[in-house]
Amino acid sequence: MNNKKVAVSIYVFNFLEIGKKIDELIEAGMEWIHVDIMDGNFVNNYALCQKFCKDIKDKYPKIKVDAHMMCSNSEKYIESFAEAGCDYFIFHYETLTDKNPITVNNIINKIKSYNMKPIIALNPETSFEHIKTYCDDLYAVMCMNILPGFNGQKIIESSYSKINIINKYRKENNKVFKIMTDGGLREDTYKEILDAGADIVVVGAFVNVENNKLKGQFEKIKNYEIK
Questions:
Q1: Which fold has domain 5-222?
Q2: More confident residue, 45 or 66
Q3: pTM score, two decimals?
């Protein structure tokens, strides 16, 4: 068995049945919920908020919850998502109006000061080179395998090489940050994503299956032998 983690993107499910679905997912082995936060500016869509995260943590305190901030000026929401109980705060490098290293480090430290783990997300077109210097202070780097804002997209083929590049850098420099990926994970892509070096994978459609098949989907990832 490997040490890969699965974060379930709750956005893909029918919200009229979300409580029942979370119960089913937990029974099948879910330990982490990925919550997409969209403000209609950074991406052309809207989704979820602090209350949704708080409702999850109030009912399921042992479940890890991340807030994936697909919005402008996400740093101004650090405190409110911490108060909602989030364990991880994911912000996009592309959303930063001030990319001065001092500013970026201040954001990372602020996230930590609220007892959340900082994760920087990179869009497909954004080079890892931009954030190398912050890796020692991050819990993870998250590669977007698709364009942010809409689910159901196919993986962008260059994602595999990007994950490989980050993984190679991590090994050669004895770094301990995690590699996380979001988007495009399907039956025909999950093995290659894991082989490339991903430690944490966000899944949506992959677990949007009949209840009797849910556990098997988690096991495919957790039991996969990395090449």
A1: TIM Barrel (3.20.20)
A2: 66
A3: 0.94
